[in-house]
Amino acid sequence: MKAIKTSHKTATTILLLVALVVAAAALFLIGSMPASAQVAAAAGGPAADPSVLRWAFLSAALAAGLSTLAAGYAVAVVGSAAVGALAEKPELLGRVLILVGLAEGIAIYGLIVAILILNRT
Length: 121
Description:
Blueprint: H1 2-29, H2 33-42, H3 50-88, H4 93-120
Helix pairs in contact: 1-3, 2-3, 3-4
């Protein structure tokens, strides 16, 4: 039982490190976005403040990326518990599929939020 707790702690630490690396990479790469936004605005598109676009792209990327990481972690935890429950009572299949589907919905919500953020810019 102690190995399982250590395994969850290690997985959570790795997930946190991956999230921090993704956020740092997004912050690093977002510096080039205003230049491309200025070119698009000069080509006849609607004028937008480059700093607003920078934060919009960053927030959309973080919303989509972190919600996907959270959904992956949720599916891993719920899925492993579901397999254990199904091994004992196979008639729980329908209920277990609903729980795994709810965990997967987190990623869809993050994608919807990212699309809404990008539509406002």
